[in-house]
Design goal:
330 residues, globular, 17 strands
C-alpha cells in the first residue's frame, strides 16, 4: 500500500495564504505513484483534510486521522509547509512527537531557535558565523529606545524586523530616526519583540540543502536582485525581483556559501530541506565576507520559489528529493 502523506499548511500567521501556495506546489511535486497525498489545512483548532472530490473532512487531532466513507484514515508522515506559527516554531513538531508521526522539519528546539531571529544570530555568532549587529526591543520598552544608542550601535539606515515571525510582513528599512517609531509599531503587529539590525550593503544570495542518512546535498546558489528597498513581500510574491541561479559570484565564494550552509545545518541539527540567506560584503582586506541573515526551515515551495529553482538548476528531480526526505524517516 502507498504511504499516506499529509502536506500540512495554513497556520495562524499573516503568511497563511502564502503557505497554501507552497502546499499546492508540493502536492504537484510529490510522486503519486509512491504516495497518497492530501493537503491538511490548519487554522487555530480548525484542522481539515482536503479530499479529492473537492470536499473536506475534519481531522481528529487526537490521532491525526479523519473519516472517509465510513473508514478511519491515518497519515504515515507529515510534510510541514507552514510559514510562521505553529509549524515553524516547534509547536506543531511537539504535537507530532507526542503522537508519534514523523515529519519533514527539525525538532522542537531547532524550530523554536530558528524562528527567533535574535536568539538564532546570538547562537550562531558563538560558532563564528558572521551576522549583523542588532538590538532587541520588547513590547512595552519602545520608549526606552534612545536615538543616540541606535545611531552609535547600529547606524542608519537599519532594518526593523519582527523577531518571531516570517520575513514577509512587518519588516521596514529605516533611513532616519523619525521612521523608527512607525517601523516598530508595524513590526509589533507581527511579534511581541522586534530587532533593530545593522544595514549591510552587498549582494544578497540564498542557498538550500538537505541531508539524509546516506547523503548530503547542497544546491546551487541563487542571487537575489530587487529594485525595491529590500527583498519584501512584493519582491517575493509579486515578481519584483530577479532570481539568478547560479549566482553571478566567484566560484570560490559560492563554494564557501555552500559549505557554510551545510555546516550550519549540522550545528543546528536540522532535518529536511532548509534555505539560508546571506549578504556578501567586501571586507577591508578586499575579500568577500559571508554574513548570515536568516535560516528558513520551511522554505517556500511554489514552482517559482528558490528551492525548486535550485533543484532544477542542480539537474535533480524534485519528486525524488521529496522522496529522499520522506523515506529517510520511514
Amino acid at each position: 500500500m502507498k504511504r499516506h502523506i499529509a502536506i500540512v499548511c495554513g497556520g495562524d500567521s499573516s503568511e497563511h495564504d502564502v503557505s497554501l501556495r507552497s502546499a499546492q506546489g508540493l502536492y504537484s511535486f510529490f510522486d503519486k505513484r509512491k504516495y497518497e497525498v492530501h493537503l491538511v489545512e490548519i487554522r487555530h483548532t480548525d484542522w481539515r483534510v482536503m479530499l479529492k472530490d473537492g470536499s473536506s473532512a475534519p481531522v481528529d487531532m487526537n490521532s491525526f486521522s479523519y473519516m472517509h466513507q465510513g473508514e478511519q484514515r491515518f497519515f504515515d508522515y507529515a510534510y510541514i509547509t507552514i510559514h510562521g506559527t505553529p509549524g515553524e516554531n516547534g509547536i506543531l513538531q511537539g504535537y507530532f512527537d507526542l503522537i508519534g508521526i514523523p515529519y519533514s522539519t527539525g525538532g522542537v528546539l531547532v524550530e523554536a531557535l530558528t524562528f527567533d531571529k535574535f536568539a538564532l544570530i546570538q547562537y550562531l555568532r558563538s560558532y563564528g558565523v558572521r551576522v549583523a549587529d542588532s538590538l532587541l526591543i520588547r513590547r512595552g520598552q519602545e520608549s526606552k529606545v534612545k536615538e543616540q544608542d541606535i545611531i552609535d550601535r547600529i547606524g542608519m539606515p537599519c532594518f526593523v524586523k519582527p523577531v518571531t515571525n516570517g520575513s514577509s510582513f512587518g519588516v521596514s528599512k529605516v533611513k532616519n530616526f523619525d521612521q523608527l517609531a512607525p517601523a516598530l509599531r508595524n513590526a509589533m503587529m507581527e511579534s511581541d519583540s522586534v530587532m533593530v539590525e545593522q544595514y549591510m550593503k552587498g549582494t544578497e544570495i540564498t542557498v538550500g540543502c538537505y541531508k539524509t542518512r546516506n547523503k548530503s546535498v547542497v544546491f546551487p546558489v541563487t542571487e537575489v536582485v530587487t529594485k525595491n528597498e529590500f527583498f519584501d513581500y512584493d519582491a517575493k510574491y509579486n515578481g519584483q525581483v530577479d532570481e539568478i541561479t547560479p549566482a553571478r559570484i566567484p566560484d570560490d565564494v559560492a563554494e564557501r556559501a555552500q559549505k557554510l550552509t551545510l555546516a550550519i545545518y549540522d550545528i543546528l541539527r536540522c532535518n529536511g530541506i532548509i534555505r539560508i540567506d546571506y549578504i556578501i560584503t567586501q571586507g577591508e582586506d578586499g575579500h568577500a565576507k559571508l554574513n548570515m541573515l536568516e535560516v528558513n526551515t520551511t522554505p517556500g515551495m511554489t514552482a517559482t520559489s528558490f528551492i525548486p529553482q535550485q533543484i532544477r538548476a542542480a539537474g535533480l528531480n524534485i519528486g525524488d528529493v521529496l522522496s529522499d526526505i520522506v523515506e529517510n524517516q520511514l
